[in-house]
Specification:
- With 398 residues, the chain is mainly α.
- Helices cover 71% and strands 0% of the residues.
Length: 398
């Protein structure tokens, strides 16, 4: 054991993990919503639209959320995001048709989930040693992935798709409970490194050249995640696979396993060297899911996607934090998470229409081709723009 390495697991880290886990139960439970909407008779396009509506709220509030994290503080931002997510989740109990209440609920969920997505990882970066940033973010992210395993419990408890809405008041209560541990973590000191005041917009940070390649990889990866999460379970269910929600056992299990067992691998081999294999695993999962004909292939698709998510997300998150000035960390994370909202807003409705016109296999194959093109863009930007521009990571040896 290397006693010179600063510890990752501290009191503040543990409190943030607890808070993040409880609020992530709220976000993760939204993956059951497509099954409920399909049971109401929604088309693929309507399912994709409903899932995308949350991104509108998330995008509108993302710039002020990024500013608030840096200028107002982490804890007040946690409170605002938590209340929005809890109220939006609770409203789903009243949704019995595709209509205004559904859209209102999804907007509030988007505002809350987007804000919490941004603030929790900025908060975690404050307490994770800079020299172990990728490893620390990977381990912290387990608290956001583990709640995915809650979704198959709906099938295990024999809750019919049309009864799923009744779980959301319970989910809202867990989300509210998440504030208790998070608010016990002290606010970090404001950076005084001369890098300038907290920005009022994320646009300046989005345009920073060292981050261009990260944005390309993020858009590609988040697009695949948005499509997989919107359509994987309904695609499997339509092919007659029983208990399609069990997919998330494989997804969460694999993602958590690679974080716990191989969290230090990206730092050993070089974080950017993990992007290609991680994204390739996710593409393979997407191609497999539309062809599954039994529980075995279904679980394999979940495992492949989980491995891809388990590595790609912490690598990209750490690169955002490392390449942005410390006093723009909230704005950088807001830009990073905003790209997730853009893809979640744009792609599910478009690809839902594509699937309605053709089939699920064609939809996922098209997404795979787009992912390969995105990966090419990432390679070009990473090797041409970053080496001469990216700042040295905090805590790195000269």
């Amino acid at each position: 054991m290397d006693v010179s390495r600063p510890p990752l697991v501290t009191r503040a880290f543990g409190l943030l993990v607890a808070g993040h886990f409880l609020q992530a139960v709220g976000y993760s439970s939204m993956l059951l919503l497509p099954l409920y909407l399909a049971a109401l008779g929604a088309t693929r396009a309507q399912v994709g639209g409903a899932m995308a509506v949350a991104s509108i709220g998330g995008l509108v509030l993302r710039p002020p959320a990024g500013w608030a994290i840096d200028a107002v503080g982490r804890r007040p931002t946690v409170v605002a995001g938590t209340l929005s997510l809890a109220v939006g989740s609770a409203l789903l109990v009243g949704v019995t048709s595709i209509g205004p209440l559904l859209w209102a609920s999804r907007l509030l969920v988007g505002v809350g989930a987007g804000t919490l997505f941004t603030v929790y990882f900025a908060f975690a970066a404050d307490v994770i040693p800079a020299s172990r940033r990728t490893e620390g973010i990977a381990l912290f992210g387990v608290s956001g992935l583990a709640p995915l395993a809650v979704n198959p419990l709906v099938g295990d408890l024999n809750i019919a798709p049309l009864e799923i809405r009744w779980i959301y008041p319970v989910i809202a209560g867990l989300v509210l409970l998440s504030m208790w541990p998070a608010l016990r973590v002290p606010e970090p000191d404001r950076p005084t490194d001369g890098a300038g005041p907290p920005p009022a917009s994320v646009l300046a940070t989005l345009g920073a050249r060292p981050l261009w390649s990260v944005w390309a990889a993020t858009t590609t990866f988040s697009g695949m995640v948005a499509l997989f999460m919107a359509f994987a379970t309904v695609a499997a269910a339509d092919r007659g696979v029983p208990d399609a929600a069990r997919l998330w056992y494989g997804y969460a299990g694999a993602a958590v396993a690679v974080r716990l067992v191989g969290a230090g691998l990206p730092d050993r081999v070089g974080p950017v060297n993990m992007v290609t294999p991680a994204l390739a695993a996710y593409v393979a999962a997407a191609l497999l899911i539309a062809q599954v004909d039994g529980p075995g292939p279904l679980l394999l698709a979940g495992v492949l996607a989980g491995v891809g998510h388990g590595y790609c997300f912490p690598v990209l998150t750490a690169q955002v934090i490392t390449r942005a000035p410390a006093n723009r960390r909230g704005a950088a994370m807001a830009g990073f998470t905003a790209l997730w909202e853009v893809t979640a807003l744009a792609l599910p409705p478009l690809f839902g229409l594509w699937a309605d016109r053709h089939d699920d296999a064609t939809m996922f194959a098209t997404a795979a081709v787009m992912a390969v093109l995105g990966l090419v863009a990432w390679v070009l930007l990473e090797h041409r723009a970053v080496p001469a521009q990216a700042p040295r990571p905090e805590g790195a040896n000269p």
